[in-house]
Amino acid sequence: MSRSHTDVPSPARQAVLESCPIGEVLDHVAGKWSIGILVAAAAGPIRFTELERAVGGISRRMLTLNLRKLERDGMLVRTVYPTVPPKVEYALTPMARELHDTLVGLTDWAERHRGAIAAARADYDATQPAAV
Amino acid sequence: MSRSHTDVPSPARQAVLESCPIGEVLDHVAGKWSIGILVAAAAGPIRFTELERAVGGISRRMLTLNLRKLERDGMLVRTVYPTVPPKVEYALTPMARELHDTLVGLTDWAERHRGAIAAARADYDATQPAAV
DNA sequence: CTGAATCCTTCAGGATACTG
DNA sequence: CAGTATCCTGAAGGATTCAG
Lengths: 132, 132
What we know:
2 copies of one chain form a homodimer.
Chain A: H1 11-18, H2 21-29, H3 34-42, E1 46-47, H4 48-55, H5 60-72, E2 76-81, E3 87-92, H6 94-127
Antiparallel strand pairs in A: 1-3, 2-3
Chain B binds a DNA duplex through α4 and α5.
């Protein structure tokens, strides 16, 4: 029997559907700070205040929120030492470490094309009528 | 001479600084739609309306904005055919194609850990006192 | 030291209508 | 077909203050 007109999504649509999980990845990595935190913690367990300095420019609020999110997603392990003053360490999980490795691929790409992108942008801005 | 107390950033801080370009990457890939557009256009030149259907759920406004942004960054080439009705095709640049390949690494990671992340989340939510 | 709580601003993104 | 122009909302994020 003939198919209705609502089926067979285009190849492009299928490709989008298949790469859908990448959207979830980005959810864990999205935001201004998640990656910075991941990178800062990659070297080994790191304390709250150390993170604050390492990431640079992040507010306490956002640091806390992002840490909670990453912990919830199983990217970070939070260890509290019941001392006084309190000491809390955050460490990457193996999963997060893998992610960190994968991210290196992106960094490389960025390094390689940083100049090209800047050039393309300058070119575009020069070509387009000034958006007054 | 002894160094002041303001120098020698921590290793973690240095790591963050070194991986800084990744922040720029994300700027090009950030947002809800950029990746979808990239993926949809990966198969070959694609028209505006085709993109609209392929990405799915995107508004005309956001599609236009994202296309302009990607074009400006040198990820897309916009070709106008002065016919009637108008026909416009968007094609990935080699640079964007490389990015697309790199993104596959992330997709793989997401696939592999999708379950683990969901589990970690359920675990976390079960452990934490219900945030009423 | 490590947060939680509150207030406020900004802006990505959605809905809708109009046009060459 | 391929946009542009407006209006509007929600969520991200910054600043500041309070607390165990």
